[in-house]
Amino acid sequence: xxxxxxxxxxxxxxxxxxxxxxxxxxxxxxxxxxxxxxxxxxxxxxxxxxxxxxxxxxxxxxxxxxxxxxxxxxxxxxxxxxxxxxxxxxxxxxxxxxxxxxxxxxxxxxxxxxxxxxxxxxxxxxxxxxxxxxxxxxxxxxxxxxxxxxxxxxxxxxxxxxxxxxxxxxxxxxxxxxxxxxxxxxxxxxxxxxxxxxxxxxxxxxxxxxxxxxxxxxxxxxxxxxxxxxxxxxxxxxxxxxxxxxxxxxxxxxxxxxxxxxxxxxxxxxxxxxxxxxxxxxxxxxxxxxxxxxxxxxxxxxxxxxxxxxxxxxxxxxxxxxxxxxxxxxxxxxxxxxxxxxxxxxxxxxxxxxxxxxxxxxxxxxxxxxxxxxxxxxxxxxxxxxxxxxxxxxxxxxxxxxxxxxxxxxxxxxxxxxxxxxxxxxxxxxxxxxxxxxxxxxxxxxxxxxxxxxxxxxxxxxxxxxxxxxxxxxxxxxxxxxxxxxxxxxxxxxxxxxxxxxxxxxxxxxxxxxxxxxxxxxxxxxxxxxxxxxxxxxxxxxxxxxxxxxxxxxxxxxxxxxxxxxxxxxxxxxxxxxxxxxxxxxxxxxxxxxxxxxxxxxxxxxxxxxxxxxxxxxxxxxxxxxxxxxxxxxxxxxxxxxxxxxxxxxxxxxx
Length: 655
Description:
By secondary structure, the protein is an alpha+beta fold. The protein has five domains: 13-95, no CATH class; 100-183; 240-453, no CATH class; 458-559, no CATH class; 624-654, no CATH class. It contains 27 helices and 15 strands. Strands 8-3-7-6-11 form a five-stranded antiparallel sheet, with helices on both faces. A three-stranded antiparallel sheet has the order 2-1-15. A hairpin with a 5-residue loop joins strand 4 and strand 5 (287-289). Helix 2 runs parallel beside helix 5 and helix 10 crosses helix 18. The longest helix is centred in the N-terminal third of the chain and has 24 residues, at 72-95. It starts with 12 loop residues before the first helix and ends with a helix.
């Protein structure tokens, strides 16, 4: 079928009679578009284009009505242009509506094409820049967004890796397809909200794939214990219970820290201009398309919020206003993001400055539109002891470990209840449908749901919880009370719970530059010449512990990761071995569930508890003084000794 004409034929009367728009031509293109659309879209596409479709046959019309109607060719032309506009806007979403099998097959083909392109370029004697240009052309032809610059040999190796293409294609397909659903007004409270049914199914399939992969992947530690990655993940913040509990601990501790100092608390609700909302609520709360909608995706909205917040923080920093707290990113029922933030200022003047700058920047774009002054920024003063109550329901809504009976959303100042297709509140609570939809929304658009502001690093908190207590003896003897206090704040001791407030005080307080916090993470030093699988130099090693940045123990390590882990390659043999030894040792893993394990015997050697292999102290004990060690050639007496030795070697070589 020929493409839709974008210009009326006007070269001659013969050309007009031959190529003029006809109702039959318009209906052919309409049926083609509907057939090519995803099955879940077809009814919505027909409904969207039906108002401009020319009638099949007009009957029972008077002569006056016939004269008032536009001619058939004009009606057909309007229909064709509406179809063309639809294809321009949603054609990519329809084309990229692929399942995961098709994505994997496409990734393999693209990796093979990249390999062939590079081999052809090398055969023709092309330079590295020309080889990279051919890869860049391939990426652009596919339609992927270049979020990182494509340059150098690593870019070529990435393009030859099917796993790299698979990851990029999954993100691209999810965002383009979901963007089409949002633009077609198929995401709103009447259809579940937050994410389309297709997007929810895509996310659930991804979660299932990940869970199966984690359950199949085995790791063994130095003690000989074998775990699945699923078991290890359940011990960390990937577990909603752990994640939600940690968030509430941090909020409660920050509130206690603020109340003890008389700081002023603000609860901010920050929304986007009307042009970011694809759907608005009409009379009776009925969802209707928003005429002001500009085609922006939730990702675009999140970037706008981040930009305004960055400007606000910069302006407050110039005025010397310090603040700290937590912000939560949430979706409206039509997937448009908005923020809730708990912010504390040091005094009333700081709180007023925060209010002024937030309102200034959030109303700097389309601030005069209807409802902007009332609904775009909502700021409340927090009462003492109420911060956890303000934000608990938003954490429950996003994390899901505290399953709410119903989710609430605020649209243009009106509170509405979300319907996820469950028959009653009990079904919503048991199924966690709201949490799954929020999770799918955040995963599709790469939105960070929780972020702290002006508070110590939670990574330091987590690593400090892994540090064994015996390492604190030296710190206590040397008078490093801050490190000892931070360590005890991170651990539960009987009825005394972990306390984020004490941790903040031990780390130095609030709103400090990164280099002024008391503790920071310590990383393993990469080996010389170490590269990743794409040939890029590894500049930062893995986290292995913590170290103070000030005081007498500055630079001294607290090792948090003593036991080395290695993947089990022969999964079948190990699984069989684990099943055979399960009854005897209580350590076998066959079903992916965490079970009780027997205590490890006392090690016959100190290797497991040795930190010298990480801090390089072990090699210093075994190897004599050498100019290869910085601490040796920096000593004056060692420098003199090395020079004398070199002079003696030179004399012997001369003779």
